[in-house]
Design goal:
Layout: E1 3-14, E2 17-28, E3 32-36, H1 43-51, E4 58-63, E5 66-67, H2 73-79, E6 81-83, H3 96-107, H4 114-134, H5 150-164, E7 168-172, H6 183-195, E8 200-204, H7 208-214, E9 217-222, E10 225-230, H8 232-237, H9 239-254
Parallel strand pairs: 3-8, 3-9, 6-7, 7-8
Antiparallel strand pairs: 1-2, 1-4, 4-5, 9-10
Helix pairs in contact: 3-4, 3-5, 4-5
Bound molecules: adenosine-5'-triphosphate.
Keywords: ATP-binding, Nucleotide-binding, Transport
GO molecular function, one term: ATP hydrolysis activity
Organism: Halobacillus locisalis
C-alpha cells in the first residue's frame, strides 16, 4: 500500500519534555489509520505536526514524497491535508449554515469573486444543507455557532472539514463531547466516507470499539514513542501494547 503521509524520526520537545519522540510512520493512502494511546501520549501533538500547527524539533514529514516539514497549515491544507477545524476557525456570530456555506465556498475558490458568489449562492447553500444533514446538525442550521453545545460544535467542525473535500482528513476525537446516542451516527458518517475509498482518514479516538471496527491500521503512542503499528487484530494481540496501554485504557474507561 503506497504511503501518502510519512514521518521520519519526528521529534518535538517542549522545554525539557519530549512530547513526540523519534516517530517514523507511513500512513497509507485511502485507508483509515487510527492513533491511540493514553492521555498525554502525544496524539494531539503528533496531529499538530502532521497538519503544520507545530514544527518538529527534528525529523521530517512527507506528503506524496514531498518534504512538507516547513510548510504552514494553510499550505498543507492547499495540498490536500485537511484538519477538523479548531473552534477558532468557526465564525461564532454566524449561523451553523453560514459557517458551512463559507467552507463550501472557500473550497470552490470564489471567496472574492462577487459575481460567481452571486450565481452559485443557492448551490453552496444546498451543499451546506446536505452536509448538515449528513452530520445530523440540520436541526441547528439557523443557530448561531456560539450557542452550540460542545458535541454540536464537533459536528459543525466535521461538516466544515467535509466541505473542503480534502484528500486527507485529520479528525481529532470526532465524537468527543457528544451524547452517547449521537456517537453511532457520527461513526456512520466516517464509515460512509471510508466506503467511498476516496479519502485518507487519520483519526484520534478514545472509543476503542469504534477504532477496532473501523481502522485498517492502528498506531499506538506511549510517552511520545510509537510502540506499535499494525492491523487492529495485531494491536489487540500485541503484548507490549496490552501491558503498556490497553489494560490502562480499559481501566480508564471503566473508571
Ligand atoms: N504546547 C505545549 N507546551 C508544553 N507541553 C505540551 C504542549 N503541548 C503538549 N504538551 C505536553 O506534551 C504531552 C503530550 O500531549 P498531547 O496533548 O499531545 O497528548 P494526547 O495523547 O493528545 O493526550 P489526550 O489524550 O489527553 O488528549 C503532554 O505531556 C502535554 O502536557
Amino acid at each position: 500500500m503506497a504511503a501518502l503521509l510519512e514521518t521520519k524520526d519526528v521529534t518535538i520537545q517542549f522545554g525539557g519534555h519530549t512530547a513526540v519522540d523519534h516517530v517514523t510512520v507511513d500512513i497509507a493512502e485511502k485507508q483509515l489509520t487510527s492513533i491511540i494511546g493514553p492521555n498525554g501520549a502525544g496524539k494531539t501533538t503528533f496531529f499538530n505536526l502532521l497538519s503544520g500547527q507545530l514544527s518538529p524539533t527534528s525529523g521530517e514529514i512527507y506528503f506524496r514524497g514531498q518534504n512538507i516539514t516547513k510548510l504552514s497549515p494553510t499550505k498543507r491544507s492547499r495540498l490536500g491535508i485537511g484538519r477538523s477545524f479548531q473552534i477558532t476557525n468557526v465564525f461564532p456570530n454566524l449561523t451553523v449554515l453560514e459557517n458551512v456555506r463559507l467552507a463550501v465556498q472557500s473550497k470552490r475558490k470564489v471567496r472574492y469573486q462577487m459575481m460567481a458568489h452571486f450565481l452559485h449562492y443557492k448551490e453552496f447553500k444546498e451543499e451546506a444543507y446536505h452536509l448538515l444533514e449528513k452530520v445530523l446538525l440540520i436541526g441547528k442550521a439557523d443557530t448561531v455557532a456560539a450557542n452550540l453545545a460542545h458535541g454540536e460544535k464537533r459536528k459543525l467542525e466535521i461538516a466544515m472539514l467535509l466541505a473542503l473535500d480534502s484528500e486527507v482528513l485529520l479528525l481529532d476525537e470526532p465524537t468527543a463531547g457528544m451524547a452517547l446516542e449521537e456517537v453511532p451516527a457520527i461513526i456512520e458518517v466516517i464509515e460512509q466516507i471510508k466506503k467511498q475509498h476516496e479519502q485518507t482518514i487519520v483519526l484520534i479516538e478514545h472509543k476503542m470499539d469504534m477504532i477496532m471496527d473501523l481502522s485498517d491500521d492502528v498506531l499506538v503512542l506511549f510517552h511520545g514513542e510509537l510502540i506499535a503499528q499494525g492491523s487492529p487484530q495485531s494491536i489487540i494481540a500485541n503484548d507490549i501494547v496490552q501491558s503498556a496501554y490497553l489494560g490502562g485504557m480499559y481501566n480508564e474507561q471503566l473508571s
